[in-house]
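Recap from last week: sequence in, structure out.
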Amino acid sequence: MSAVDASLYIHIPFCASFCDYCDFYSVKISGYNDDYIDMFISALYTDIKHQIEYFDIKKFPTVYIGGGTPSALGKKTDDLFKALEKLPSFTPSELSIEANPETLTDDFLCICDNHGVNRLSLGIQTFNEASRASVNRAGTGLELMRHIEKAVRIFPAISISVDLITGLPYQNEKTVMDDIKRVLDIAPGHISLYSLTIEEETALAKKIIQKKITLPPDDLSDSLWLIGRDLLVNAGFHHYEVSNFTINENFCLHNIRYWKMKNWIGAGPSASGTIINEGTAKRYTYLPDIDAYIKNPSIEFAAQEELDKYTLIKESLLMGFRYYEGPDSRLFKQRFGVTVEECIPQTLDRWKNKDKMLFLNRFLTDAFEEIASNV
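Predicted structure tokens:
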């Protein structure tokens, strides 16, 4: 395999507290001292350096630090960035980090600014306190605004991305409209608007089964997301991906690389990476176990699989049609020897004047059935 460009995803598995709906791997940072966090950062560096050599990576166009809650690292974030900056060719054009507003400190924000972070992703989810409390989300609406104001003092609002969720308990049209209004007042360059998904084995899923909590009915939940979408579009935001909106072309370049199925590597417990080569791909996923990762921070100890051409075509369509431009036509032809139009002509004709992003699952069902019939 020749040298490649690959984006880098880093999973920081620490959280100050756990939200009931989350199924990402994380541990409570209060249970770990500074020496342990140092060992984790050292393991990340060892892992990423090894992957650079293993895959012959020449450049990281984008880097995304997610979790978990990266902002839970506080001052230790400085050590993380110093380690990353020792890596060869660590000059990403987009350097993103996630943060929960309730864990934001001046130290964390200044460290990010000093180390070249140019995209700060804030997980607000909702300002509605009844909804937040119902899913064990820390912080009141007033506290959130105070912390967000800190961020805007250090980072240009246009470089801030905000996450919101609809379909939470106690949400209605008024609370969603209020969330959108408050976020628009912040004037971020990017907003992600998600519809709540209930993941199996989460605390929220168990509470629903036990009838300890009730969600809005499906039709209301769908309506709330559409209300949010319409408000954002009417405010001038471009709906460029299933759940993502931007103003003045402040796209998330890292996620666009996912949607175009370009190479990425992952580092950290539960992280995964995919390197594509001539129509097939190698994918690996680390165990969701921080102790195991620190002991063996190498993809040789990750679960690995080979994606064949058929699987990779389906994934390229699945990811590509999340994005308003569709799959990367040049890469698709280069990898598979056919164009998207040649691959699923009947499906594209049937959906010619329909919104593929809004009805993505139905569109993909048709596309995959057409592909299967031609195999």
